[in-house]
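Appendix B, example 12.
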Amino acid sequence: MAARSTSPISIPLMLERPVATVAATAPLALDAAALGRLRELDPSGKRGVVRLILSAYETSLRRARTELSAQVGDADPKILFLIAHTLKSSSASVGALDLSAVCAEIEAALQPPRGGAPESSRAGAALDGQIARLDAEADAALGLVRTMLDG
């Protein structure tokens, strides 16, 4: 179900997704305030700025998920830190706040000491757990973005 607006993209208010992939308390829509800020860049919607931003985000997120899948079982903290760092702000700007929050947690956990490399002392299983959380939230965000682009 989606709310209709004058913009060519509607904000999904409710979507169903498997509880196994994301916590049951997770919002099922992109943040309306974040989307509103994006719409301010192109108030008439004639230039399709929101669509372009969401499409670029979708491409970037798919690329990051490919990089993430290569990390399962043999995670490199440096790569995981860079993926989380990259996705944190872009996810927040399109309204994927749950994904942004998971990225912030991972980034903080792997934050390098001043002048050092990201924390490499974390156990592989712990990193795999972080990757699984990030992947689940990325999957949810991709579904929401795709719904908006198709809508």
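DSSP finds five helices and two strands in the chain. The mean pLDDT is 78.
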